[in-house]
Amino acid sequence: MVQVDVFWSYGIGASLATAAAYQLRSADARRAGRWSDPYLLGSALYCAVLFAPSGAWLLWGFPDWETMQTADGHGSLPPWLVALFAATNVSQGVLGYCVAARLIARGRVYAAFLQAGLGYTGMFFILVHGWDGRGYQRFFSADRDTFAAWPEHPGLGQALSRAGDWLASPVALTLYGMGAVIVPAMLALMVSWVRSGQLAAGGADGGVVAGRLRIVAAVLGAVFGVALGTAVAASVLVHLLGWWLGVPVVAAVTLLFVVRPETGAAHRVFLLLGLPDRRIGLPSSALRE
């Protein structure tokens, strides 16, 4: 979705940089410079060859859904917006990578990991809440007519029924096909980069390398557990308390229960990846199979 992909692509770029944390912290990487970074090239190619085209496909095929029901067909989309959308799907990914890579070079790998979480949480909050509290209704509506038919205050059963109808819609079927390509491709890159970095850093000296399933579970848990859960909780709090009180409460809850080192949900998932962090450190069991 146009409103979502700015955050999503940023999260993708930061995620890929975090996966290459061992490599980016090496002396060779610091000497080579940013524009000689093969992991930046891989991340940019992923965004340009897979992620950006998927967004363009959805915008052309389902302009109302892809704009969260704000556009009424192709005629209401100015050309500059289409071009900007395609560009940001790549540029924001590169930006997310560069911000995370700079943090990693300073030894702050957990902070880089949180950059990815920031992108994914922002993406999910727009999907769940949006700008008017109806983000999930816009998402689970295949077109503007379906969105307009939502009741003013839908109950849980009504919402689930409409979500179930959407799961068999043409836009959902298209997403399944795209997800079968772009998600495994990203996970394969991350698994490869995490494991190769761990091997280069300590595998030759008897160090332990994280298992593939462990890495995949950690990544999916961070995205669909921590980030999505935080976005849903934030939406609920904003609904209950309003924006002025809800936002500071959300910030406090996130700091205490999500990002806080050692006890936060995000940090617990981060430990599963077995990545180095100068400020926090890792227990000896972090890379245990």
Q: What is the overall pLDDT average? A: 90
Helical element count?
A: 13
* Main beta-sheet annotation: none
Shape: globular
H-E order: HHHHHHHHHHHHH
Q: Which radius of gyration do the C-alpha atoms yield?
A: 20 Å
Number-wise, the strands total 0
Description:
The C terminus is likely disordered. Helices cover 74% and strands 0% of the residues. It is built from 13 helices and no strands. It is mainly α. Helix 1 packs parallel to helix 6, helix 1 runs antiparallel to helix 7 and helix 12 runs antiparallel to helix 13. The protein starts with a helix and ends in a 16-residue tail after the last helix.
Summarize this, please?
By secondary structure, the protein is an all-alpha fold. Helices cover 74% and strands 0% of the residues.
Characteristic key phrases:
289 residues, mainly alpha, 0% strand, globular, disordered C terminus
SSE blueprint:
Layout: H1 2-19, H2 21-24, H3 27-32, H4 38-61, H5 63-66, H6 79-105, H7 109-128, H8 135-139, H9 144-148, H10 156-166, H11 170-202, H12 212-259, H13 265-273
Helix pairs in contact: 1-4, 1-6, 1-7, 1-11, 4-6, 4-11, 6-7, 7-12, 11-12, 12-13
